[in-house]
Design brief:
Blueprint: H1 2-23, E1 26-34, E2 43-51, E3 54-60, E4 69-80, E5 82-87, H2 98-104, H3 107-123, E6 126-131, H4 136-147, E7 155-158, H5 193-206, E8 211-213, H6 233-245, E9 250-254, H7 257-265, E10 270-273, H8 279-288, E11 291-293, H9 296-308, H10 317-337, E12 341-342, H11 359-366, H12 371-377, H13 380-386, E13 403-406, E14 422-425, E15 428-432, E16 435-436, H14 447-458
Parallel strand pairs: 1-4, 5-6, 6-7, 8-9, 9-10, 10-11, 11-12
Antiparallel strand pairs: 1-2, 2-3, 4-13, 13-14, 14-15, 15-16
Length: about 450
């Protein structure tokens, strides 16, 4: 009883201290071990001074500047906030007839789910994501709400609706009565370079940060073949050239070798999945500096589901998953061995729960990456792919104070990253000692009100 009371009191005191620290001018974090996302090896006993929403300095030893509030992580490993470069944060997987679900759910349903998904993702230590496929108005509204502090969530770079051809991966009509229609189903279906250029410009106007294209067939769609290139080269080139002229990067869903090779040669910034790559493909990756985002977690989850509950999947999906996924797993090993640049991405859309993103790390390590390489893929390399190394992906002065901590050493056991106990985003603490902090419970509030609530909770 005495121990339980002591634990409760310590937790309350920590919540009070951290809530106060989040509002103070200066906060210093004493990190027992720091993996900064840049250096080849961790540093021991480091002080990270946070001023406002940015890292002001990183100093050796445990120092406490006058007036600074201390967050004691002296027995923990501190890392940059993690980054998932392939997320679908508005999507949730629902058991049962998938066509019925697709025909009855609306963007409003997705938005409600997305609020909880965003919070769960942040609390898992992912302070930034690249969302590469969602109803444009829904994901842009969520991004705005997070940026405004209305709801907690990661920083978001969003593509909106993916661009693809009629009958390709992303065409909502696949497998349905051809006479069915919906106002949104044509928004990103393109069958000419002219349509591709116009769609890119419209997505930019509607608030997209990057563009997602579908050069090949997919696994979770109905009837299309993942091995085939379904977008023509001139359509792919029109998307890439137009996006780049607007300062937008392009991510390409591609499983088949021809789609992979052609899209890389045409200047895409990243290939998602890349299942049927080979040595020729890896040479193109390296020549053009293209990133691979391998998405192993979704592959494993879909494969397991296809074996145990194929009835929950779209027609043709189960068989495609059983064929494609083993190739995906081998491909990551071969791509890494060939020296291809890799950025972390999970393709989380509910097949694995939002907030389970860190399970990708162990699969990457099993495929041959070292734990440090897998961490770099989710920090500095991911930031490089997104195009914002000045703000995210490393613990350095001037970057956002996006920090996470785990109790053990993820270089010895990378699954430690599945048990994040501390999360700070922009200098605000969302999780401490494994417990949700006040900032993650509600919309942003004035500092005085937060302090009053913290006092009441503590005493």
């Amino acid at each position: 009883m005495q121990m339980a009371f002591r634990t409760m009191l310590m937790g309350a005191a920590a919540s009070l201290a951290l809530a106060t620290a989040a509002q103070a001018a200066d906060v210093v974090i004493h990190a027992g071990r720091l993996i900064d996302g840049v250096a080849a090896a961790p540093r021991e006993k480091v002080s990270i001074l946070v001023r406002g929403d940015r890292i002001f300095s990183v100093e050796p030893g445990f120092t406490t500047p006058a007036g600074a509030q201390v967050i004691d992580l002296s027995t923990s490993t501190v890392l940059p906030g993690l980054i998932d470069c392939h997320d679908h944060i508005t999507a949730s997987f629902h058991k049962g007839d998938p066509i019925h679900t697709a025909m009855t759910r609306t963007g409003y349903d997705d938005e409600i789910d997305a609020v909880n998904n965003a919070r769960a993702t942040l609390l898992a230590g992912f302070t930034s994501i690249r969302d590469v496929g969602a109803t444009t108005s829904v994901i842009v509204a969520l991004k705005k709400a997070v940026n405004a502090g209305i709801t907690p969530g990661p920083r978001m770079w969003v593509s909106g609706a993916p661009i693809g051809p009629s009958g390709g991966h992303g065409d909502a009509r696949n497998g349905l009565d051809p006479e069915l229609d919906h106002p949104g189903w044509n928004n990103s279906v393109v069958d000419s370079p002219e349509a591709a250029r116009k769609t890119v410009r419209q997505l930019k106007r509607e608030g997209a940060d990057l563009i997602k294209i579908m050069p090949s067939g997919g696994v979770m769609s109905i009837g299309d073949d993942p091995k085939l290139q379904l977008m023509a080269d001139d359509e792919i080139k029109a998307v890439i050239d137009t996006a780049h002229s607007l300062g937008m990067k392009v991510a390409a869903h591609a499983h088949g070798k021809q789609a992979i090779d052609h899209t890389i040669a045409l200047g895409v910034d990243s290939i998602e999945h890349s299942s049927y790559s080979d040595a020729e493909s890896y040479a193109l990756y390296k020549k053009h500096g293209t990133y691979l985002v391998p998405t192993m977690l979704v592959g494993k989850k879909v494969y397991d589901h296809a074996r145990t509950h194929p009835e929950d999947l779209n027609p043709s999906t189960a068989q495609k998953a059983l064929t494609v996924v083993p190739v995906m797993l081998r491909n990551l090993h071969d791509a890494h061995a060939a020296g291809v640049k890799i950025a972390f991405g999970t393709d989380t859309f509910g097949m694995s729960a939002h907030g389970e993103n860190a399970q990708e790390f162990a699969i990457m390590v099993d495929a041959g990456l070292t734990p440090m390489e897998a961490i770099r893929a989710a920090t500095s390399s991911a930031a490089d792919l997104i195009g914002d190394t000045a703000d995210i992906g490393s613990v350095q002065p001037g970057r956002y104070a996006d920090l996470v901590a785990v109790g053990g050493d993820p270089l010895r056991d990378v699954t430690e990253l599945e048990r994040v106990k501390f999360v700070m985003k922009g200098g605000v603490v969302y999780k401490a000692a494994g417990q949700v902090a006040p900032a993650a419970l509600a919309a942003a509030q004035p500092a005085a009100k937060i302090d009053e609530q913290a006092v009441e909770n503590a005493f």
